[in-house]
UniProtKB/TrEMBL annotation:
Biased composition (Low complexity): 48-57
Membrane-crossing segments per the record: 137-160, 172-192, 247-266, 272-288, 300-321, 385-403, 449-472
KW Hydrolase (keyword) present: yes
Organism for this UniProt entry: Hanseniaspora valbyensis NRRL Y-1626
Predominant place of localization: endoplasmic reticulum
Highest taxon listed in the record's lineage: Eukaryota
InterPro entries listed in its UniProt record: PAP2/HPO, PAP2/HPO_sf
Family statement drawn from the similarity comment of this UniProt entry: Belongs to the type 2 lipid phosphate phosphatase family.
Protein name (database record): Phosphatidic acid phosphatase type 2/haloperoxidase domain-containing protein
Pfam family, one: PAP2
Keyword presence, Amino-acid biosynthesis: no
One MF term in the entry's GO annotations: sphingosine-1-phosphate phosphatase activity
GO cellular component term of the entry, any: endoplasmic reticulum membrane
């Protein structure tokens, strides 16, 4: 049945088509067809819009219906696409030209062309690859690059050393910290948008991350730096592993990299240019770390001068106060503050171990070379080594959480009169329209730095003291 109509006479059982003269044609859909209803309500608990699928099912398939409805509800909860909120980076070209220097604007304008051309291939990936299992896998595997994961898991590389002849924890912390800093710096400088949603659907549990700029991808920068580093270590120690183990390790690190990189495309969080630029930053960070490691770890750290940790803290604050300011409100800078703080705390704790540990710290006695004074001994117990490792993790994680979630929260509210130091993150979550950037107060930057420096000090110095107290060394 066909007839000319006005646009306000449509209902959801009809399909709109255009005739040759340009008028709207209403064509009734078969009653057996599935229909998609667009709801004006919320898409998820975070306030996003969503579409509910209305399937025709027989009464005899109630169990299958319940399973499908559960999957639908989880899928909807996972989607963070919000048609009512503008993402940063989507203002007009005139807006950015007024706010940026001529060079900065020209660079952004040139790179924006690469970002705009990526919508179709990203839609193709989501259209042809998306399913419930992949949704869940890439959502939870994205936590491998999350803030909380690093806070909890990075200290474990110090509590459970892989080798008693070489330390890997300092390399990993440096790689992750500076890949976050460099990627955040460039994100705020370029102000390039994430893939536009809609039409792209963002599949994530981290709503504040969707409010960051797009290129370069910090997940990919981290994954590239860590993956290449691990591959180099595996090649350097191939003689110590049987072939099957070597294949397994290479397979696992390949899976890690593929998951974090392709997962950003699948989940609609990044485009191809974001990944390429992130990978380049990860590579450069690795080169810088390997090139400076000998001077930092083998010379400066162990020379006994009290100026070493002081200079490291000064360098950290210099990097933070030289960090470029974005045009719109964006929470990237807070991650940079956190990771640079971790590096500062790491250097303080390791300097104490290297220069006072031989006399005062039980785990350092008679250890050589000096650049490994901060490393804990491996559990040497034949029967209960797994209990020692488990108790180290329990005690260590508890101490980190007490510092991060109890002590610093009390100090933040009592002395600084702040509800939180995550000001940028909270503001971006509450905004309906993207606002222009507001600089963080200096006291917030300084205190946030020391919160995360404290995490490193607790992990690398305070926790080992408790291990000694509880007989876990």
């Amino acid at each position: 049945m066909k007839q000319s109509i006005k646009s306000d006479e449509l209902n959801h059982h009809d399909e709109i088509k255009s005739s040759e003269d340009g008028s709207l044609i209403l064509e009734e859909l078969p009653k057996s067809a599935d229909t998609h209803i667009v709801s004006n309500g919320t898409r998820s608990r975070h306030g996003s819009s969503f579409s509910l699928r209305n399937r025709n099912r027989s009464r005899g398939s109630s169990i299958a219906s319940n399973i499908l409805e559960t999957i639908d509800s989880i899928t909807i909860h996972n989607e963070q696409t919000d048609i009512d909120t503008k993402d940063p980076g989507l203002n007009s070209e005139i807006f950015y030209e007024k706010k940026m220097s001529p060079l900065r604007f020209r660079i952004r304008h040139f790179l924006l062309n690469f970002v705009k051309d990526e919508t179709k291939p990203l839609l193709f990936i989501q259209t042809h690859c998306r399913n419930f299992i992949f949704d869940e896998y890439f959502i939870y595997s994205a936590n491998l690059g999350s803030h909380f994961f690093y806070v909890i898991c990075l200290p474990m590389t110090r509590w459970i050393p892989i080798s008693d002849k070489m330390d890997y924890s300092r390399d990993l912390i440096y790689l992750l910290a500076y890949s976050i800093y460099f990627s955040g710096f460039i994100k705020d400088y370029l102000c390039l948008p994430r893939p536009k949603a809609p039409p792209i659907i963002r599949i994530t549990h981290s709503e504040y991350t969707t409010k960051e700029y797009g290129a370069p991808s910090s997940h990919t920068a981290n994954a590239t730096a860590v993956t290449l580093y691990v591959i180099l270590q595996l090649f350097a120690n191939l003689q110590n592993f049987p072939i099957k183990k070597s294949v397994l390790y290479f397979g696992l690190i390949g899976m890690y990299y593929t998951t974090l990189s392709f997962g950003r495309l699948y989940s609609g969080m990044h485009g191809f240019f974001d990944l390429e630029s992130g990978a380049l930053i990860g590579l450069l960070t690795l080169i810088l770390r390997l090139g400076s490691k000998k001077m930092i770890d083998y010379n400066l750290l162990t020379n006994g001068s009290v100026f070493y940790p002081i200079i490291q803290v000064i360098i950290g604050f210099t990097l933070l106060f030289c960090h470029t300011h974005p045009i719109e409100l964006c929470p990237c800078f807070e991650d940079s503050v956190s990771f640079i703080g971790v590096v500062g705390g790491l250097e303080i704790a390791d300097w104490i171990c290297c220069n006072f540990g031989e006399k005062w710290l039980p785990w350092v006695t008679n250890k050589t070379p000096q650049n490994l004074y901060f490393q804990l001994p491996l559990p040497r117990f034949a029967d209960n080594w797994y209990k020692i490792i488990g108790l180290r993790l329990l005690v260590g994680v508890t101490l980190v959480l007490i510092w991060k979630e109890v002590i610093t929260v009390y100090i933040t509210k009592k002395f600084f009169k702040l509800k939180t130091t995550s000001i940028l993150s909270n503001k971006t979550l509450k905004q309906v329209q993207v606002r222009e950037y507001e600089a963080l107060p200096y006291k917030v930057i300084i205190w946030r730095y020391w919160i995360y420096a404290g995490i490193a000090i607790v992990s690398c110095f305070i926790a080992p003291l408790f291990f000694v107290l509880f007989g876990l060394l």
